[in-house]
Design a protein that fits this description.
Blueprint lengths: L13 E5 L16 H15 L3 E5 L16 H11 L3 E3 L8 H8 L6 E3 L14 H12 L4 E4 L21 E3 L1 H15 L5 E5 L8 H8 L4 E4 L4 H7 L14 H13 L3 E3 L3 E5 L8 E5 L8 E5 L1 H12 L3 E5 L12 H12 L3 E4 L2 H9 L8 E2 L3 H8 L5 H4 L5
Parallel strand pairs: 1-2, 1-5, 2-4, 3-4, 5-6, 7-8, 7-13, 8-9, 13-14, 14-15
Antiparallel strand pairs: 10-11, 10-12
Helix pairs in contact: 1-2, 6-8, 7-8, 9-10
The structure holds adenosine monophosphate.
Length: 399
């Protein structure tokens, strides 16, 4: 178990908190979705309540080390001020840390909050060479006495603000990371069985490592979405014009073999909803997965597959899901993705959604609050499920 802010005394301490305030902004610099800000509030409010002196930091977008108003965290400071009901001090400083910022950090009173400018205004933040990150990491750490990592979405990256700072001050997790590690970790290490994983999305290549690791853990692996066609082809079926990751064909074959070795049930679609064009209003046809005609492409799983997958989900103890079952952005091909989300919401299982598109889908369907856990990190949750140690979590002290 990793130490959290509850395991240490933060009263009167200057605490440097890495949040994920990478929010979407429109052309006028207005925040269009404040989910990430809302998600960060429990940790911040707890620290305020405990009388900590709070310095928040985050990246926003990809300014590539070139500071600009378009990537400033000023709108986030304003939103936080409203949500916390107290001023959040902020100065748009290109260097992120300067004399004024240092002076403010040193003079914070218990319960006071300040936000640093976008950490990616400094090119050292995310440069590949970890040693080159050090001076910035040290500068950030010198502002505070304790480091709190609560940015799960960036935890799979070793950056100055996500991992580097922990070389200089003790590190604990905030509530968001605590929850991620608990639910993703339990699914991997101690799942209530049967453990069913559902993987979809476009490319097999992106998910190979997660499939390999999950095959060792799951009772059943359901594969849908674009990547299913590479597996169907590997089984010897023609897939027409469906998306095919030809370079991963041999890999798909070996994963099918591995499933047998691991005694894991691997289910592919038995039918698909297919069309001749990648368009929402293209005429669509239900076809058996082993009879996709040469002129059609599978764009969603079919009704029989939905039934098959829903049965496995209904009987599961734990369900982990990453990747849509079809081109869910087009309403005509969203049925499979919606059905999986609904089956998960209705099951009594522990349900874990691994960030990215699947998280967006359950939000879109209004089912997010019916899930046990919706991960806040797409890439991070996949790497976690691959069994990798995430740099931003590795630096947090063990209990
Ligand atoms: P990924 O980023 O790998 O999780 O892939 C997500 C994308 O896969 C979504 O944008 C879906 O539209 C796309 N996708 C899912 N199923 C299919 C399919 N059958 N054919 C083409 N694209 C698909």
């Amino acid at each position: 178990m990793k130490k959290t802010i509850k395991d240490i005394d933060v009263k009167g301490k200057i605490v440097l908190v890495r949040c994920d305030f990478n929010v979407p902004l429109n052309d006028d610099g207005v925040i269009t979705d404040d989910t990430r800000i809302v998600g960060a509030l429990p940790t911040i409010q707890y620290l305020i309540g405990e009388g900590a002196k709070i310095i928040l930091m985050s990246h926003l977008g990809r300014p590539d080390g070139a500071p600009s108003e378009a990537f400033s965290l000023r709108p986030v400071a304003e939103a936080l001020t409203k949500k916390l009901g107290r001023p959040v001090w902020f100065e748009s400083v290109a260097a992120v840390v300067d004399e004024e910022v240092k002076a403010k950090a040193a003079s914070l009173l218990p319960g006071e909050v300040m936000l640093l400018e976008n950490t990616r205004f400094r090119k050292e933040e995310d440069c590949k060479d970890k040693d080159a990150q050090r001076p910035f990491a040290e500068q950030l750490a010198s502002l505070a006495e304790v480091y709190v990592n609560d940015a799960f979405g960036s935890a799979h990256r070793h950056h100055a603000s996500t991992a580097g700072v922990a070389d200089y001050i003790p590190a604990v997790s905030g509530f968001l990371i605590e929850k991620e590690v608990k639910f993703l970790g339990e699914a991997l290490e101690n799942p209530k069985r049967p453990f069913v994983a559902i993987l979809g999305g476009a490319k097999v290549a992106d998910k190979i490592k997660v499939i390999e690791n999950l095959l060792k853990k799951v009772d059943t692996l359901l594969i849908g979405g674009g990547m299913a066609y590479t597996f169907l082809k590997a089984e010897g079926f023609e897939v027409g014009r469906s998306i095919l990751d030809a370079e991963s064909l041999d890999l798909a074959k070996s994963l099918i073999e591995k499933a047998k070795e691991e005694n894991a049930e691997l289910l592919l679609p038995v039918d698909v909803n297919a069309a001749a064009a990648f368009e929402n209003d293209a005429p669509a046809f239900i076809r058996n997965a082993d009879e996709i005609p040469p002129d059609l492409m599978g764009l969603d799983i079919g009704p029989e597959t939905i039934g098959l997958f829903a049965d496995r989900i209904a009987a599961a103890g734990t369900v982990f899901w990453n990747g849509p079952m079809g081109v869910f952005e087009m309403p005509a091909f969203a049925a499979g993705t919606r059905a999986v989300a609904e089956a998960m919401a209705a099951s009594g299982a522990v349900t874990v959604i691994g960030g990215g598109d699947s998280a967006a889908a359950v939000e879109q369907f209004g089912l997010a609050d019916k899930m046990t856990h919706v991960s806040t990190g797409g890439g991070a949750s996949l790497e976690f499920m691959e069994g990798k140690t995430l740099p931003g979590i590795a630096v947090i002290a063990d209990r």
